[in-house]
Amino acid sequence: MTIRGFHAHTYFNGDELPDAQRFAEQAKERFGCPVGHFHTAPVGPHPRGSCQLSLRPAQFADFTVWACEARNGLTIFAHGLSGDDLADHTRHVIWFGASEPLDLSIFG
Does residue 101 belong to any structural domain of this protein? Predict the structure, then answer.
Protein backbone atom coordinates (compact mmCIF):
# COMPACT_ATOMS: atom_id res chain seq x y z
CA MET A 1 0.00 0.00 0.00
CA THR A 2 1.20 3.48 -0.90
CA ILE A 3 -0.39 6.71 0.28
CA ARG A 4 -0.47 8.95 -2.81
CA GLY A 5 -2.02 11.99 -1.15
CA PHE A 6 -4.46 13.14 1.50
CA HIS A 7 -7.92 14.64 1.74
CA ALA A 8 -8.76 16.91 4.65
CA HIS A 9 -12.52 17.37 5.04
CA THR A 10 -13.52 20.40 7.07
CA TYR A 11 -16.86 19.75 8.78
CA PHE A 12 -19.23 22.57 9.61
CA ASN A 13 -22.79 23.39 10.56
CA GLY A 14 -24.65 26.22 8.84
CA ASP A 15 -23.48 28.89 11.26
CA GLU A 16 -19.85 27.72 10.86
CA LEU A 17 -19.79 28.08 7.06
CA PRO A 18 -17.93 31.43 7.13
CA ASP A 19 -15.29 29.91 9.45
CA ALA A 20 -14.91 26.90 7.14
CA GLN A 21 -14.58 29.17 4.10
CA ARG A 22 -11.94 31.25 5.85
CA PHE A 23 -10.00 28.12 6.90
CA ALA A 24 -10.11 26.77 3.32
CA GLU A 25 -8.95 30.09 1.85
CA GLN A 26 -6.05 30.26 4.31
CA ALA A 27 -5.08 26.65 3.50
CA LYS A 28 -5.21 27.40 -0.23
CA GLU A 29 -3.01 30.48 0.21
CA ARG A 30 -0.52 28.72 2.46
CA PHE A 31 -0.29 25.30 0.74
CA GLY A 32 -1.64 25.94 -2.77
CA CYS A 33 -4.05 23.06 -2.24
CA PRO A 34 -7.23 22.69 -4.29
CA VAL A 35 -10.43 23.48 -2.40
CA GLY A 36 -13.57 21.50 -3.23
CA HIS A 37 -17.22 22.47 -3.01
CA PHE A 38 -18.80 23.56 0.24
CA HIS A 39 -21.51 20.95 0.77
CA THR A 40 -24.03 22.30 3.27
CA ALA A 41 -25.62 18.87 3.85
CA PRO A 42 -24.14 15.39 4.31
CA VAL A 43 -22.58 13.93 1.16
CA GLY A 44 -20.86 10.58 0.71
CA PRO A 45 -19.70 9.20 4.05
CA HIS A 46 -19.60 12.61 5.72
CA PRO A 47 -22.16 13.25 8.49
CA ARG A 48 -22.68 17.00 7.94
CA GLY A 49 -21.59 19.93 5.82
CA SER A 50 -18.04 19.59 4.54
CA CYS A 51 -15.39 20.89 2.20
CA GLN A 52 -12.49 18.84 0.86
CA LEU A 53 -8.90 20.03 0.66
CA SER A 54 -6.48 17.92 -1.41
CA LEU A 55 -2.88 17.67 -0.21
CA ARG A 56 0.26 16.03 -1.51
CA PRO A 57 2.18 13.75 0.87
CA ALA A 58 5.04 16.28 1.12
CA GLN A 59 2.58 18.95 2.33
CA PHE A 60 0.70 16.90 4.88
CA ALA A 61 3.07 17.18 7.85
CA ASP A 62 3.17 20.96 7.60
CA PHE A 63 -0.60 21.06 7.13
CA THR A 64 -1.20 19.04 10.30
CA VAL A 65 0.90 21.38 12.43
CA TRP A 66 -0.78 24.44 10.92
CA ALA A 67 -4.33 23.00 11.09
CA CYS A 68 -4.05 22.24 14.81
CA GLU A 69 -3.99 25.97 15.50
CA ALA A 70 -5.80 27.39 12.46
CA ARG A 71 -8.95 25.24 12.61
CA ASN A 72 -10.51 27.53 15.22
CA GLY A 73 -12.68 24.79 16.71
CA LEU A 74 -13.76 23.25 13.39
CA THR A 75 -13.61 19.48 13.08
CA ILE A 76 -11.35 18.16 10.34
CA PHE A 77 -11.35 14.58 9.12
CA ALA A 78 -8.17 13.78 7.20
CA HIS A 79 -7.41 10.52 5.43
CA GLY A 80 -4.84 9.00 3.15
CA LEU A 81 -5.45 8.09 -0.48
CA SER A 82 -4.28 4.53 -1.00
CA GLY A 83 -6.85 3.41 -3.56
CA ASP A 84 -8.82 1.42 -0.96
CA ASP A 85 -11.69 3.76 -0.03
CA LEU A 86 -12.84 1.72 2.98
CA ALA A 87 -9.33 1.53 4.46
CA ASP A 88 -8.75 5.20 3.68
CA HIS A 89 -11.86 6.16 5.68
CA THR A 90 -11.27 3.76 8.59
CA ARG A 91 -7.57 2.89 9.00
CA HIS A 92 -5.68 5.78 7.37
CA VAL A 93 -7.39 8.59 9.29
CA ILE A 94 -6.58 11.51 11.55
CA TRP A 95 -9.18 13.61 13.36
CA PHE A 96 -8.65 17.21 14.40
CA GLY A 97 -11.33 17.69 17.04
CA ALA A 98 -13.82 15.05 18.09
CA SER A 99 -14.33 12.13 15.72
CA GLU A 100 -17.76 11.71 14.14
CA PRO A 101 -19.51 8.62 12.77
CA LEU A 102 -19.15 8.16 9.02
CA ASP A 103 -21.64 6.40 6.73
CA LEU A 104 -19.37 3.60 5.55
CA SER A 105 -22.22 1.78 3.76
CA ILE A 106 -21.32 3.60 0.53
CA PHE A 107 -18.15 1.51 0.31
CA GLY A 108 -20.18 -1.65 -0.16
Answer: no
